[in-house]
Amino acid sequence: MSSSELTGQRILLIDGHAMAFRAFFALPADRFTDGRGQSTNAVYGFTRMMFNVVASEQPTHVVVAFDLPGGTFRDRIYEQYKGGRDATPEAFHGQIGLIQQVLDALGIVWLTVPDYEADDIIATLAARAAAQEGEALIVTSDRDAIQLVDERVTLLQPVKGVTEMRRMDPAAVMEKYQLAPARYPDLAALVGESADNLPGVPGVGPKTAAKWIQKYGDLEGVLEHAEEIAGKAGQSLRENIDGVRRNRLMNAAVTDLELPVDASAFTLGRGDRTAALAVFDELAFGDTTRRDLPDLFFPEGAAAPEPLAGQEVPADLPIAGAEDLRALLAAAPFELALDVADDVRGGALLGIATTGRRGVLALEQLDQDASSALAEVLDSAELVHVADVPAVRVWLRAQGYELTAPVRDLALEAFVLRPGARSYDAESLAHDLLGTVLDPRPRRPTPATLKKETAEARAEHLAVASARLADSAAALLPVAAHLDAAQEEEPWTRPLLEQLEVPLQRVLETLHERGIAIDRPTLDQLKDEFDGFVAQARREAGAIVGEEVNLASPKQLQAVLFETLALPKTRKIASGYSTDAESLIDLRDSLPPESSGHAFLSWLLRFREMSKLTGYVSGLDAATDGTGRVHTTFQQTAAATGRLASTEPNLQNIPVRTAEGRRLRGVFAAGDGYEALLTADYSQIEMRIMAHLSEDAGLIEAFRSGEDLHRFVASRVFSVAPEDVDAAMRSKTKAVSYGLAYGLSAFGLARQLRISQAEATALRDGYFERFGGVRDYLRASVDRARETGYTETILGRRRYLPDLRSDNRQRRENAERVALNSPIQGSAADIIKLAMLAVESRMREAGLGSRMLLQVHDELVVEVAPGELEQVREIVVDGMDGAYELSVPLEVGVGIGRTWLDAAH
């Protein structure tokens, strides 16, 4: 590195591991994933931190330093260095590699040096920048960096996650520690550093240490005068002088490393925007990440890609009335692309495009003539291309229009081709399939901002939003052409679309329109009862500790649990100790049942359970329409396995594991003019599919014999007669059976059954010994998927898994679990969809008044008209039983009652 390359420059130095860990603990891992099982919370938080610091500090150079596994020279000095740290959380694994991918795309150099820490790399570069009359900014939570602070080196120390930084210059260090930065290592040697497992002098805190250093000049002065220091603190110092000297040796910054990269590579502005956006999409980051990406990362003059980059931009055509609308649609063939948006300034906006032309309609501003012209278009177009037909149709209906022309759902087609994408809206389809980049979505203004906005500013913002919507509509036409070509190359998609997904889509729209009736008196009664249970839990928990406690506040709970009640600490997190459900259940079960801690935790868990049920009740109350019915929306593209999802409200997630939860199903009832609800579900469909796919003789025998499956399996695994299988044996083998079908590891099985991992492994191995066909099938599934690149369901639905060959262990193992469970879960989803088509078709052919209302994974709910019960039962059972022929029989259970709860079976 030449001596002039950092002269007069401003270099930003980031401690990669330190900031990644802070980001990990600041953001919940379960809310940030890439859609393939890899957690990305640390990556997201780190990336946002990078954006903020680069935008605010405007550096000229940036370097990120990382630690290497395997220890450093400091571990040879002191074997217990950094000992006692908790094991790295499983969800953190793999995220450092992903952060490094982000840095590569942004053109940011990241460095590691064998036998040294990231701190040493940072110290070397900071010292060189200062020596060359440059400026260094250090971003780290490691207090050892304080010693580097001087007039040219500033420490940005995170104080809240990775979003808020404390600026530590020499004056700030002096104010906080009463010492110059160069003397901080002396103070740290006396006080110790718990994070590094470096014990200090017992009874000596920062104030005492600073007083000694001020009096005697530095650490050596303190040690030379140790005999003069009176009291217990002085005696403690004399007894721990060797440890103090060791600490000072350990915390000394290394400033003379020979780094492997020329400093010219550290220059900010060497990134590749296209590569960066591709990485963000791979990580499933949202639109705000794209919008907030600072231009400083990229070469000067390298502006963001133009909308619709790489393809011909259709001509804009302002649409003000009927004449403009008809002009837009004058081209032949009469095919359209539509996209919709609700804008805070323009209201309901409809983006509309034909080949070579595009425009936007502000529906609230259309006069009668233009409105009639639009209605005519939506009825007479030869074909309309949209992303998410049901959503667009519902949106148009809310505006007073019906989309009755033939329609093509590009989102559904893209989903069948490549399930598991981040999104299937028009913008995502254009980007993922064509590489088209739209301008990032603008931030939603606050009401206060809108109130102050001038008419000119409002018009300008609306013009930007309209242009973006026109772009997304126009992009759908080339997307359609791309999907045509893709389906030609992968002909297995056509039968799935034409015979299953497209026909089912209309059925799902019909289910949405029908809704399901709500028993209002029962709903109101449950609300009162659940509110009472919540109040009781809050009251009883408060009585145990002698004060009112906000049970919804993690901060207050930590104080009560670990200070007032002095309970054993749970898993360490950034804000203290975990109060999540799993941690609290483990903690409660470890305590004596008669203890106050056990009682408090029981009431706390009761409070959470009942609060959740109260939330369900309130959600149903809000979602009930004027006719007393709730209309859920079934999503076909939400789950990569092909399973349907229910939203707004979610009726597939009504809790049934507790008595109170099951009572919620009593709220759903047969509506006026109907006599009952009929429920029908498949018995153990995943295990029947497992038997069919694995061809395991033992499982097939179990199903064909008609015995209880899990009792049969337990008798083989535990080598006892079926009649000697107890409840624990049956429960364990049931967990193994379903765990294998869902790709559950031995660790996950142990957690679920609350047994040791060794016992879980032995249980799984015993299962495989008795059911070798299952073992062989599961192994072959992964091997075959690794060879072909995809898994398949019984209907030929594919799921591509490129991560099966990934160098990232976390991603590879996640892909292997997906390869195990996708064929089974996906096949179950295919079969229930076939059953839905059969039941709906036969009931219509029979001219019945009864109607199907819901699908809940392997269950159908039907509203039965008077006098049609037996005919409906026969149609439903035959339709489900005959949906697909497996090598073992499909078994359908039926229940009937006035409510969904009464119809349980």
Automatic annotation (TrEMBL):
Per its UniProt entry, what is the enzyme's top EC class, as one word?
Answer: transferase
Know the name of this protein?
A: DNA polymerase I
**Which GO terms of type biological process are on file?**
DNA-templated DNA replication; double-strand break repair
Q: What family is reported?
A: Belongs to the DNA polymerase type-A family.
The lineage, from the top, is:
Bacteria, Bacillati, Actinomycetota, Actinomycetes, Micrococcales
What's its EC? 2.7.7.7
* Listed PANTHER family: DNA POLYMERASE I, DNA POLYMERASE NU
Q: Does the keyword Translocase apply?
A: no
Q: Where is the DNA-directed DNA polymerase family A palm domain?
A: 661-868
